[in-house]
Amino acid sequence: MADLASYFEQVGKTALLTKEQEVLLSQRIEKGDRQARDHMIQANLRLAISIAKKYQHSGCSLEDLIQESSMGLIKAVDRFDWRKGFKFSTYACWWIKQAVRKHVASHSGSIKLPTHAKNLLWKIQTTSKEYEEEFGVSPTMEELSDLLGVKKATLESIIMSSRWTMSLDKEIGNKNEGGSRTLKEVIPDNKESFELSLDKAKVSQIIREAFAHLSPREEKVLRLRFGIDELADPQSDFYLTQEEISSINKRSK
Amino acid sequence: MSMPKGYQSENGYATVSSEEGCMGYREIAEKMTEEGDKMNHSTARNVFLRAMEKLAGPLCKVYGSQNSSTMARDPRFQSCMQEIIEDFGVDI
């Protein structure tokens, strides 16, 4: 941490550049001036640090993030075109963000998500935050899908994959107060017991068999009493074609 | 006026007909009569109880409990049957 503090102090010593200075330095960089390139990088390291800090809760160390953002900054210095008339910081922040996000995507969490999925996840979070600020409620999955132009299923899958994982063997509770238990020991098993399921299956079987012994009249009354629908298509019980059924109907008339 | 002693069922009355889609004996009798099987509410009840007895019989044999006639009249058994048959769906 002390190293980082001294690094911040050192970075802070270089003055920020004006737009004119940026153009002059860029022109010198184009001619191959190494000193100008170093100066441009030094003067913009604060931008790289500030962007890296925004990602420090993503599961990566700040030192690594600063290193990656600095790499992004160097790329931006090498590719900056002063003729387009933009300020360097406007152009550089995209390269820095891209470098940091790429690093975060490949180094955080136990489930590795592809970079495009991480980027989409980032967009989901940002969009949700903006939506909440504007409307005071979280957006539904359908609304997010419309806003981002991505399928709902894709969104759900990415959100599901990005969830934090936790070890079942993780100890919970205070060790000093009579030992601790693991997470798997306190997760309840909501499934019914094996004996109960066997018993239910047996009862179901008996009732099914008993049902076969009911007369049609008894079955009808039972269904009416219990509010159970009858088979939608009684013809499905008989192996007759539609033509045969209509012929029987005609004859009965 | 208080209820005469011995008339109230030991375990209360079956209330399945108060649930959605379920019918009382009079409604069943009307419906069956409409469909050509003429019967009154008492017959509807008798037919229903006979069906319940047929279901209760094999269960009584397996579990060695009370006779099927008593079990068929028990509202708890009737509610239980209703739940089980509902679980089977239409394909009984």
What do these coordinates show?
With 253 residues, chain A is mainly α. Chain A has 3 domains: 1-108, Up-down Bundle (Four Helix Bundle (Hemerythrin (Met), subunit A)), CATH 1.20.120; 109-187, Orthogonal Bundle (Arc Repressor Mutant, subunit A); 194-252, no CATH class. In chain A, 65% of the residues lie in helices and 2% in strands. Chain A contains 12 helices and 2 strands. Chain A has helices at 2-12, 19-30, 34-54, 62-79, 88-107, 115-135, 141-148, 152-161, 183-186, 194-211, 216-226, 242-252; strands spanning 171-172, 181-182. Chain A has a two-stranded antiparallel sheet with strand order 1-2. The longest helix of chain A has 21 residues, at 34-54. The radius of gyration of chain A is 34 Å and the shape is elongated. Mean pLDDT of chain A is 82; it is low at 232-238. Chain B is mostly helical and 92 residues long. Chain B has one domain (16-88). Chain B is 58% helix and 0% strand. Chain B contains 4 helices and no strands. Chain B has helices at residues 25-34, 41-63, 68-73, 75-88. The chains are: A mainly alpha (253), B mainly alpha (92). The A-B interface holds A 202-204, 206-211, 213-214, 217-222, 224-232 and B 16-17, 19-23, 25, 27-28, 31-32, 37, 44, 47-48, 50-52, 54-55, 57-59, 62, 81-82, 84-88, 90-92.
Secondary structure blueprint with pairings:
The complex is a heterodimer of chains A (253) and B (92).
Chain A: H1 2-12, H2 19-30, H3 34-54, H4 62-79, H5 88-107, H6 115-135, H7 141-148, H8 152-161, E1 171-172, E2 181-182, H9 183-186, H10 194-211, H11 216-226, H12 242-252
Antiparallel strand pairs in A: 1-2
Helix pairs in contact in A: 2-3, 3-4, 3-5, 4-5
Chain B: H1 25-34, H2 41-63, H3 68-73, H4 75-88
